[in-house]
Automatic annotation (TrEMBL):
Gene3D superfamilies to which the protein is assigned, alphabetical: Dihydrofolate Reductase, subunit A (3.40.430.10)
UniProt-listed SUPFAM superfamilies: Dihydrofolate reductase-like
InterPro entries hit by this protein: DHFR-like_dom_sf, RibDG_C
One BP annotation, GO: riboflavin biosynthetic process
Any GO MF annotation of the entry: 5-amino-6-(5-phosphoribosylamino)uracil reductase activity
Domain Bacterial bifunctional deaminase-reductase C-terminal intervals: 88-170
Designated name of the protein: Dihydrofolate reductase
Residue ranges the record marks as coiled coil: none
Cross-referenced Pfam families: RibD_C
Length: 193
């Protein structure tokens, strides 16, 4: 079974979006460099960010996200982002009307059920859990192995929290990855068990 990684870009004060679900300058680092990050040529980052992110993307088998993220992105038009094989959506609602049932998206009720589905689909590859409420629930349930964050140099003051509504203390290990890119600091922490 692959590792479970909670991941997102985050402000210095711990927010993944503002109060209107807008990321604002959190993603500026994705266009601040000169090395193409994907085939579109739109995303250009520093060499350090490219090497770190591309290596990570190649290890992901499944991403778990909440219905809110799915709806905000219009389900990525039925194509999982960043070349990921499958997306598991945590939701109490069924797939949208006219949703293509052949699209590699799985609609599951609850974080534990989503994790079981994701791990089965991912095999020995990484299961990525989007930060926010779903990521916080997975962390609180003891299902997360690593916390990865791309820290952007911005302070939001309020908004959508990286760890969602987690209200208990969780200890992380010292960071085992600290990489400085342009307009971003990439960090990875193991979750202390």
């Amino acid at each position: 079974m692959g590792r479970v990684v909670m991941y997102a870009s985050v402000s210095v004060d711990g927010f993944i979006a503002d109060e209107h679900d807008q990321p604002g300058p959190l993603f500026d680092w994705l266009t601040s460099g000169d090395v193409p990050l994907d085939e579109s040529g739109v995303l250009k980052v520093s060499r350090a960010s490219h090497d770190y992110i591309r290596s990570y993307w190649q290890q992901i088998g499944v991403t778990i996200c909440g219905r809110r993220v799915f709806d905000l992105t219009d389900g990525w038009d039925g194509m999982p982002p960043s070349g990921i094989d499958h997306v598991v959506v945590v939701t109490h609602r069924p797939a949208p009307e006219r949703w293509d049932p052949a699209a590699p998206f799985h609609f599951v009720d609850g974080v534990e059920a989503a994790m079981a589905t994701a791990q089965e689909l991912a095999g020995d590859r990484i299961v990525e859990v989007a930060a926010g409420d779903v990521g916080g629930q997975a962390l609180a349930a003891g299902l997360v192995d690593d916390v990865r964050m791309d820290v952007a140099p911005v302070v939001f003051g309020s908004g959508k929290r990286y760890f969602g509504s987690v209200d208990a203390q969780h200890l992380l290990e010292d960071p085992d990855v600290v990489i400085q890119g342009d307009r971003v600091l990439h960090l990875r922490y193991g979750v202390r068990r």
